[in-house]
Amino acid sequence: MFGTAVGSMRAKDGCLEIGVGITAKDTDGMRAKLKRIVNRQILVEAGPGLFARSQQRRPHSSGAGS
């Protein structure tokens, strides 16, 4: 869902994007999942409740010996 997103998204936007409900229970669950992804440094929390893709890229190992 963040692959095509321009800028930051809120938890409610994420719920709408994947087609789940937008009740408080649903958005709270989505927010908790997004915060776990932030802890893994895949996303960043750009502001209170705003989530975006991390600009930090992890280096890929090519598998070739040096």
With strands numbered from the N-terminus, the spatial order across the biggest sheet is 1-2
The percentage of residues in β strands lies in: 5-15%
Overall strand count: 2
Quick one: biggest sheet?
A: 2 strands, antiparallel
Cα-to-Cα separation, first versus last residue: 37 Å
Return the string of H and E elements: HHEE
Spans where pLDDT lies below 50 across 5 or more residues = none
Radius of gyration: 14 Å
Name the shape in a single word.
globular
Structural class: alpha+beta
Q: What can you see in these coordinates?
A:
- Helix content is 36%, strand content 14%.
- It is built from two helices and two strands, in the order H-H-E-E.
- Strand 1 and strand 2 (50-53) form a beta hairpin.
- Helix 1 crosses helix 2.
Brief write-up:
This protein is an alpha+beta fold and 66 residues long.
